[in-house]
Amino acid sequence: METKLYLIALLLIASILVGCTQQDFTPIKTPTPQLTPSQHSEVTETKLPAPTQTPTAHPKNASLVQPEPAVTEILTPTPSQNTPTPALTSTPIETPAVTPTPTITTPAQSSTSKPNEPPTVRIIEPKDGEVIKSFYLPTFVQIRVEVGDDKDIDRVEFYVDGELKETSYFFHSATAYLDEGVHTIKVIAYDNEGLKSEDTVTVYVEKATPSHTPTPESNEPPRVRIIEPKDGEVIQTRDLPASVTIRVEASDDKFVDKIEFYVDGTLKETTYFFRSITVYLEEGTHTIRVVAYDSDGLTDDATVSIRVEKIPEPTPTPNPFVDEYEDDDSIKQAKPITVGEVQHHKFDSSSDRDWLYFKASAGKKYVVEIVDSDVTVSISIYDANENLLASTTLFEEKLEWICEKSGTYYIKLSPSFLLGEGGNYSVRLTETVVEPTPTPFTFEYGVKYKVKVLDVIDGDTIDVLLPDGSIERVRMLGVDTPEKDPGDNKPYEYDSITDLNYLAEWGVKAAQFTESKLEGKYVYIEFDEVAGIRGYYGRLLAYVYLEDGTDFTAELVKQGYARAYVEGEFKKEDYYVKLEEEG
């Protein structure tokens, strides 16, 4: 019987241990010995206390808490008269203490986090030791970096020669302007916990110089012309210094790099894109000079001389409070005024009107202007039938009018805003000749225009002076000569020729041939209605004829300097192709 009790105790301990290893504890039931029916009547049933349990922590907490030892009371049946078995006594049995299970920890459940790593940073532009060449100093330098971190980048600091230039919180690039010399560029990257890394490069800035000495075959100097103001022009002004706008035309076979503007020998401004500036000149004679530079340093200049004069102030009013021209309140009472005269008048009331008349010539412009006034005056011009011809708007005190027919005309002066006691004013009449508006030169198909060849650009391109004085670039229509620079030629463009240097040699020969025949001479140009007036690059497209009528464009093909340009469409295409085949 003791053996059975011992086994029951062992089973109870095993059940407790098994329950401790499960994810959620469940109550442990102590096995009850199976009794015979005869024993039921003799056994006094006593409830066994459930073992005290502490709920198991969730596996994610990785710690198991074992229950404390419990005492189980075993019921001992009392032997009956028919059963010789000795009576069982209720004996408390102490469950052996359970050794606590060690805490279980998995890698994912570890409470110890990975230590933070410093960020990484690398300068990817410019490279260490890089030489930066520029025509203009200081030069613009882009600084770009690559950064990384196991968490987040807080900011990047950019230093040049030890000086902090920029701090970036979002972008990984910065700009700097560097003068000639050696420069140290350093960047420092910080993460959000203050750890940092840095990288440093050294660069060299040098001023660039032209790569080669230009030759007549590789480059032509630029051309520049001052179109405003004109040479010998007199500029009159009331206020000094006078505002004068200088405008130029500049061109080059490559491109114009810059233009320098000088006034009386002093450099006033250098422009790289614009073709005009404004200067302020005092009274007297001034010399304006401009110098144009191309990309290879070749130059051209132009000079004009102008004179600035101050317009004399009007003669002061001897007695501004006396109107010597009254009565002049109607067109029939109008008083005469001559060109250049200044008259002094006074409005006596808001209903007062002053009328004047003058002789006008057709084609001339007349200006009626209010000067020395303490009242706002409206100006109107009428004909003899009192038909309104022109008038000022509110607050205008000058009226310009062009006479279409010679005759007598009338000026009506009335107060726009008038004080109760009237107002004083002076009026002046001036006259100028109306300059005709220049009409742009237009071309027609089938007409030969005589022009002068100013410059030969290459075998099939020339600059000419048109009859209206303007300069245009002409691309000879229907033919194509090789370029003078090998890099501008293409293989197989001229049959099977692939030697670009060979093509360049013939490009020079073609240019020399055209120069010998055309430069400085008068020729005729004619436009083709199939090809149009201008090409893709804005140049004139025309056939070129010598003064004796020879088709010079065809001569280029006959002499073997050009091929027929079959990529476009033009009337003489079949003729030029035939000449090429015969050649």
Task: Annotate the secondary structure layout.
Layout: H1 2-20, H2 37-40, E1 71-73, E2 92-94, E3 120-125, E4 131-134, E5 139-148, E6 153-160, E7 163-168, E8 173-178, E9 181-191, E10 196-207, E11 223-228, E12 234-237, E13 242-251, E14 256-263, E15 266-271, E16 276-281, E17 284-294, E18 299-310, E19 335-336, E20 342-347, E21 354-360, E22 364-371, E23 376-382, E24 388-391, E25 398-402, E26 407-417, E27 423-433, E28 448-458, E29 461-465, E30 471-476, E31 479-480, H3 500-518, E32 522-526, E33 540-545, H4 552-558, E34 563-564, H5 573-582
Parallel strand pairs: 4-10, 12-18, 19-21, 30-33
Antiparallel strand pairs: 1-2, 3-5, 5-8, 6-7, 6-9, 9-10, 11-13, 13-16, 14-15, 14-17, 17-18, 20-27, 21-26, 22-25, 22-27, 23-24, 23-26, 28-29, 28-32, 29-30, 31-34, 32-33
Provide a descriptive summary of the structure in words.
The strands form nine sheets. The protein has a five-stranded mixed beta sheet with strand order 4-10-9-6-7, with no helix packed on it. Strands 12-18-17-14-15 form a five-stranded mixed beta sheet, with no helix packed on it. Strands 19-21-26-23-24 form a five-stranded mixed beta sheet, with no helix packed on it. It is mainly beta and 583 residues long. It contains five helices and 34 strands. Strand 28 (448-458) and strand 29 (461-465) form a beta hairpin.
What's the β-strand tally? 34
CATH top level of the largest domain is Mainly Beta
What's the N-to-C terminus distance? 135 Å
Strand order of the biggest β-sheet:
4-10-9-6-7
What is the CATH architecture assignment of the largest domain? Beta Barrel
Summarize the biggest pleated sheet: 5 strands, mixed
Indicate the proportion of strand residues: 35-45%
Number of helices: 5
Stretches where pLDDT is under 50 for at least 5 consecutive residues are 22-111
CATH fold-level assignment of the largest domain: OB fold (Dihydrolipoamide Acetyltransferase, E2P)
Shape: flat
Helical residue percent band: 10-25%
Radius of gyration: 53 Å
Quickly give the structural class.
Answer: mainly beta
Report the average pLDDT across residues.
80
Number of domains: 5
